[in-house]
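Need a sequence for this fold. Nothing fancy.
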């Protein structure tokens, strides 16, 4: 079944090119150029053709896209991917902690957008695939069920905390996970400000799982925001 996408973007040229690219990929694409327009579109959606993902611009003629994010989060499980020229870390953290699935800074490549959309849809359970239990990317192989991690075919021993952190990132592979979410989920809500835990443990994971921990390929840094597990290789 094709997924429904609402593309909210006031830049006409970008809106048109994205609509075409997404339609080619098989998405059912609705477009809107303002918040009012988007709300009207969302109201008129037919239940048999739902919107599964919203591509949300922030700077819009009638307000800030963040207000629509708040409304969408109260309503349900639609995936929200923010596309914005605003690249301040504080802005990214606000929308991610506010419930956006991911954040892409303009200008971006269509390939990256599509990968992030797939990850967001998978995370929201819209895809037909089973939940993520295995991850493969290049020389890195992770089986969450058996808790086995292999790098270049060799088994890697991880401490329980290292494994918990890795598993949290793998379950949302392809998407950025904020420092706050990682700290809350791995160490507990009372530790959300201890970002030095993350630096320490990510360093340990990279030393074990990357060929060159100074230039990680699997465990990626989103500076000032969080971390992202690289999008897994697709099965061939
Ligand atoms: Ca805009």
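Here you go.
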């Amino acid at each position: 079944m094709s997924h429904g996408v609402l593309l909210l973007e006031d830049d006409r040229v970008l809106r048109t090119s994205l609509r075409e690219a997404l339609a080619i990929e098989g998405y059912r694409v609705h477009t809107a150029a303002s918040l009012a327009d988007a709300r009207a579109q969302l109201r008129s959606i037919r239940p048999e053709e739902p919107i599964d993902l919203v591509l949300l611009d922030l700077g819009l003629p009638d307000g800030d896209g963040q207000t629509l994010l708040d409304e969408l989060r109260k309503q349900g499980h639609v995936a929200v991917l923010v596309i914005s020229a605003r690249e301040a870390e504080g802005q990214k953290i606000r929308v991610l902690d506010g419930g956006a699935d991911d954040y892409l800074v303009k200008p971006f490549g269509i390939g990256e957008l599509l990968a992030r959309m797939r990850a967001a849809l998978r995370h929201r359970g819209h895809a037909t695939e089973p939940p993520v239990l295995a991850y493969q990317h290049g020389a890195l192989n992770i089986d969450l069920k058996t808790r086995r991690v292999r790098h270049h075919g060799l088994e890697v021993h991880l401490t329980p905390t290292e494994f918990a952190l890795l598993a949290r990132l793998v379950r949302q592979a392809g998407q950025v996970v904020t420092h706050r979410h990682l700290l809350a989920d791995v160490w507990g809500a009372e530790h959300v400000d201890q970002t030095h835990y993350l630096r320490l443990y990510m360093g340990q994971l990279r030393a074990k799982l990357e060929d060159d921990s100074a230039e990680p390929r699997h465990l990626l840094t989103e500076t000032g925001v969080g971390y992202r597990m690289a999008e897994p290789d697709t099965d061939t």
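For context: The first strand starts at residue 4 and ends at 8.
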